[in-house]
Design brief:
Blueprint: E1 6-11, H1 15-29, E2 34-35, E3 44-49, H2 54-71, E4 79-84, H3 85-90, H4 92-97, E5 103-106, H5 113-121, E6 140-144, E7 146-147, H6 158-162, E8 166-167, H7 170-182, E9 187-191, H8 208-216, E10 223-226, H9 236-244, E11 248-253, H10 261-267, H11 273-286, E12 291-298, H12 305-318, E13 322-327, H13 345-368, E14 374-383, E15 386-390, E16 402-404, E17 413-422, E18 425-430
Parallel strand pairs: 1-2, 1-3, 3-4, 4-5, 6-9, 9-10, 10-11, 11-12, 12-13, 16-18
Antiparallel strand pairs: 7-8, 14-15, 14-17, 15-16, 17-18
């Protein structure tokens, strides 16, 4: 280790984890330590983990063991910190299971990173007063507006991992947004476990529509995207606010999970196919050009073939632009893992694949319908030798991309004529 310790971050999981890693990285950047991108150059790696479902936990464990087994021994004095959801979910169990890790940092304690690093390295962290809470950089930035969740969905581990729902104060969100815009962000993606509930716990009178209005009023050439809106939070007021805005993308990500009322009831959720079709109709009436994404789950305990058929018919009728399909995973500590009627893995996987196939039909068709149109695209950079960006109808990481057939400056908006579609991806020429 040199005189100035070097710290690198490796992040697994969702955009909320990306924000948490970025906030911890901002602490390092504002300290006497150095922030480096490559773990090979680092004295400490902070592995920010996901443990929402078993495959994510397995990926987190595998990455930690790989770092402990190969990266740490490659140079004397290296240290490994495992942060985030995995230590929040499993606590002291991890210390016994993975003694090769030097320190664990649950989500609720990530602000303790400076003292953890000081203890491991013996070098004062020396945090600079008044330092930014985020690192500047990419054209797209996630803006976390809430933490935790108060819902009790039978399958979900989030309340256990991240605790009760807490809204970030409006002024704090606006200040962070201003910093990100000034640092070059051209898209702010609002994220949280349940952003539609924003504001109900604040002393000031505010809701998500209020926050959107305040963000919309900020100066600058940027756009706003809303992710993870629970269906009961898609209010007429919110839709009217989006419609009146020049900056908010006409894009809604509404995780419905199922369309069979009995299955939704077993999940601890409300609704059903008819109710959801009405909701989608209401959205499309106010926002005729809206792009709609949802998430559905196949093979929940007790799901019959009739329930599965209801969900399939709903996905076909709803004609979403994008559908995230997951096979049910019986997560330790959840109600759903103990319910009767657990389905075999192959049945869950087969039902999930049927849903993906149905969703692709409408998704591919909706992408193809954009051929000939002109779309405003945020240019994000090189992807395997191609210049790519995203329209307002394409969220980062989860939807398609727009391949730009021609030169365009990264970090700017360009008007692109769509000349072809390949699955969910679009191909266009800058005007």
């Amino acid at each position: 280790m040199g005189l100035t310790p070097a710290i690198a971050f490796v992040t697994i999981g969702c955009p909320k984890n990306e924000v948490d890693s970025d906030r911890m990285a901002a602490l390092v950047e504002a300290s006497a330590y150095r922030l480096v991108d490559d773990p090979a150059d680092a004295d400490v790696v902070v592995l920010n983990t996901c443990a929402f479902i078993q495959p994510a936990t397995e990926e987190s464990i595998a990455t930690a063991l790989e770092l402990a087994g190969e990266w740490v021994p490659a140079r004397a004095g290296r240290r490994l910190v495992v942060a985030g959801c995995m230590p929040s979910r499993y606590g002291a169990e991890l210390t016994d299971a993975m003694p090769e890790v030097d320190a664990y940092l649950p989500v609720a304690e990530e602000s303790r990173l400076p003292e953890v690093l000081e203890d491991l390295l013996g070098v004062p962290f020396a945090l600079r007063a008044g330092a930014p809470t985020r690192t500047p950089g990419a054209p797209t930035a996630y803006l976390k507006v809430s933490e935790g969740c108060d819902r009790a969905c039978a399958y979900c581990t989030i309340p256990t991992i991240r605790g009760a729902f807490i809204s970030a104060p409006v002024d704090d969100v606006l200040a962070e947004a201003r910093f990100l815009i000034d640092a070059g962000a051209r898209e702010l993606v609002l994220v949280g476990q349940d952003i539609a509930s924003y504001g109900y716990d604040l002393a000031e009178q505010a809701d998500l529509a209020t926050l959107v209005e305040r963000l919309d009023a900020l100066a600058g050439d940027f756009r706003i995207r809303l992710m993870y809106l629970q269906p009961d939070g898609v209010t007429d007021r919110l839709l009217a606010t989006i419609a009146a805005s020049d900056k908010v993308c006409h894009y809604l990500d509404v995780p419905l999970q199922h369309a069979s009322a009995p299955v939704l009831d077993a999940m601890g959720r409300a609704g059903g196919a008819e109710h959801f079709i009405g909701l989608l109709g209401r959205i499309r009436t106010v926002l005729p050009d809206v792009t709609l994404r949802t998430t559905v789950m196949a093979g929940f305990p007790g799901e019959t073939e009739a329930d599965a058929a209801t969900l399939e018919r709903f996905v076909e009728e709803a004609a979403f632009d994008f559908v995230g399909v997951f096979a049910f995973s019986p997560e330790e500590g959840t109600v759903a893992a103990t319910l009767p009627g657990q389905l075999p893995d192959d049945v869950r996987a087969e039902r999930a694949q049927r849903l993906r196939d149905i969703a692709d039909v409408s998704g591919f068709a909706r992408a193809a319908s954009l051929v000939g149109s002109v779309q405003r695209v945020l240019v994000e950079g090189d992807d395997e030798g191609e210049l790519v960006g995203r329209t307002c109808g394409q969220a980062p990481d989860v939807d398609g991309l727009t391949v730009i057939d021609g030169p365009a400056p990264v970090g700017t908006f360009v008007d692109v004529r769509i000349i072809d579609a390949a699955g969910y991806d679009l191909i266009g020429e800058p005007l």
